[in-house]
Amino acid sequence: MKLDIIGDVHGCYEELLLLINQLGYQFVDGILMHPNNRKLAFVGDLTDRGPNSLKVIELAYQLVIEQQLAYYVPGNHCNKLYRYFLGNNIKLQHGIETTVEEYKQCPIEKQKIIKQKWMTLYEQSSLYEIITELNLVIAHAGIKESYIGSYSNKVKTFVLYGDITGETLPDGRPVRRDWASSYHGERWIVYGHTPVLEPRFVNHTVNIDTGCVFGNKLTAISFPEQRITSVPSKQPFIKEKFQ
């Protein structure tokens, strides 16, 4: 099995298409094909902040649900949009307001289609994906070795938000422990969630959220080669978003 795992897209549809093309994929009669029979995977946070979240939803639905050519695991932004569509009282801040604004600009029939696609994509996803053939786990914000195989609320919080302490930084972001530095498992953990300027390799973990929506780049890692492929962002660069 050969897999290309893409970091947090956050509505950056044009960059996503460029990266897919850079990885060697092409659409043939509407079906995404690769000459070496590779598959795609998304590490979560498909929407919010960027300019084209709805197009990203439609493409992910096509690849994951309709064509079954890609894996998808949800991120915290995915979870929030799902709760919004459930009718929960969600604060429209930290990015979701851009997706909701896009959604509200659509005709009612288009809104129904988008909502149905998102609910289906989210409900049919696994909290994290264990790829046994490649000895790796895809989890949005990472996962502890001892959590693999468990789907408790504690594990869900970790996978969606990282190893949070309960404290917040001055800008409102949660304080997170560096769980990767103490990870000693044999399986690779591929994750995103926290923007970094370059893919961060620590032990058998790699963070591939290179902050496309904040003006850096969109990145994929290919297994088993452990090859990095990136395309530059078309968004304005916001230096303070990177750690």
What distinguishing features does this structure have?
243 residues, alpha/beta, 5-stranded mixed beta sheet, Ser/Thr-sp_prot-phosphatase, Ap4A_hydrolase
SS field, number of helical segments? 6
Give the helix proportion (percent range). 25-40%
> Largest sheet at a glance?
5 strands, mixed
Taken from the alpha-carbon principal axes, the silhouette is globular
- As a whole number of angstroms, the C-alpha radius of gyration is 17 Å
Low-confidence stretches: none
- The largest sheet has its strands arranged as 5-4-1-13-14
> How many beta-strand runs?
14
Quickly give the structural class.
alpha/beta
How big a fraction of the residues is strand? 15-25%
Order of helices and strands: EHEEEHEHHHEEHEEEEEEE
- For the residues shown, what is the average pLDDT? 96
Alpha-carbon distance between the termini? 33 Å
Can you walk through the features of this model?
This protein has 243 residues and is α/β, with parallel strands linked by helices. It contains six helices and 14 strands. The longest helix has 16 residues, at 108-123. Helix 2 (53-66) crosses helix 5 (108-123) and helix 3 crosses helix 5 (108-123). The chain is globular. The strands form four sheets. A five-stranded mixed beta sheet has the order 5-4-1-13-14. Strands 6-7-10-12-11 form a five-stranded mixed beta sheet, with no helix packed on it. It has a two-stranded antiparallel ribbon with strand order 2-3.
